[in-house]
Amino acid sequence: MDEDSKKQEILKNFFKKLLKKPSKKYAEKEFYGYDDNGNLVVTDKDKNVISTIELQYYRGYSKDELEELEKERVDKIIELENKIDEQRESLRNAENIEDEFNIHTEITNLEKQRSFTINPYRSIKRVEGLEVRDVQMEDKAKDSKKQKLVYQVVYRDFPLAKLYGKYTHSKEVIDAIEQKGVRLTSGEVFLTNGRVARFFNENEVNNEFLSIFLVRDFVYNETKFSSPYQAFETTRLMELGKEELAKKVLNTRSIKTIRYYIREVLDVLPDTKDLWTEILSEYYKQHSDLIKMLTDTKDAILVFANANPYLGGIGLTSDDPKRLDTKNWKHNIVGEVLMSLRSEFLQGMKTEKQEKKFTQSTITEEEVKNTKKAAIISSMKKKSVNFE
Questions:
Q1: Distance between CA 228 and CA 211 in Å, rounded?
Q2: Quick one: 236 exposed, middle or buried, by C-beta within 10 A (0-12, 13-18, 19+)?
Q3: CATH topology classification for 171-361
Q4: What pLDDT is recorded for position 387?
Q5: Domain residue spans in the chain?
Q6: How confident is the model at residue 146 (pLDDT cuts 50, 70, 90)?
Q7: Secondary structure of residue 215 in the 3-state scheme
Q8: Following CA atoms 233, 235, 237, 242 in sequence, which dihedral angle do they give, to the nearest 10 degrees?
Q9: 0.85 cut: is pTM over it?
Q10: Which of 3, 94, 206, 328 is an S-S bond match for 322, by CB 3.0 to 4.6 Å?
Q11: Are 132 and 113 in contact (CB under 8 A)?
């Protein structure tokens, strides 16, 4: 059982004990209390601590967060509407009864999803004082008016789980919201110290523009690279004396392929921060649109949530709950470099797009397409020969 499951089990038992009546027949094996920090403590009959559950702080949603939830809901409805339209179009072109049945089933499922998204939660509301006519059929003369209770179905815009608020590990987060008026935007989170941060790695939708894995051509040291990551790995391999491997890394645009090539080379360079500063400085100077996105992060802490030991991340992934506490970070070299560049750009550093000359280059997108096309043609020719 993982830590979250254990925590849930302890909390469930705690609430069960609160609700049930004390029993004289069975002696209690576990006792519950609170420590000086307000956390839930489970002890045995001799008051020995069995486990401690850190209780989180509750906070209500901000106006911005509620608006973001509503936007997500509306976007989901639009997405489902488009899918339903596509299925209805397919229904017109169905060739047999089986296809029609399958399409009808899919439309029904999509309509159910749409209905739940539009009205995800419903409750019953009592409406009092509604006047209705009461007619006795056996004696129409006894037609009278009287008050009756009427119940109405009420739909909420959000499910209860999302409607009221969320929990956080730190009181500082509550203070940041209530006292300083801090509001989160898409891609931002609160750290346990109350600071706002942006975590980036490779697949974070709202923070992809910060990623070193973003494929955007630029020139560094008279060589055209397809991404900052490729530039870093090529340079690192050259410094480690692995020229042939460096050439292989340069001859692909695929992040996945680069990772495969260098999977066994984990040497850390002593000048990692200097190297990232040079690479990312050139990268941003050649992409002014990314400079605008970088400076728009304002004073948020930029955090490279990567567990690779030599790349310069915090040693934790972006879905690890421990990442919210800076005490758990090994280092944050890439994030620190980006924050330093952001400061320079905000101070008016020259940022217009710069054209750079280069003597060697990574494979271009056109060359990748041509290579794939040639491979397909070659495969088709072989099949044709074998058939004959």
A1: 9
A2: buried
A3: Tetracycline Repressor; domain 2 (1.10.357)
A4: 45
A5: 3-55, 62-160, 171-361
A6: low
A7: coil
A8: 140
A9: no
A10: 328
A11: no
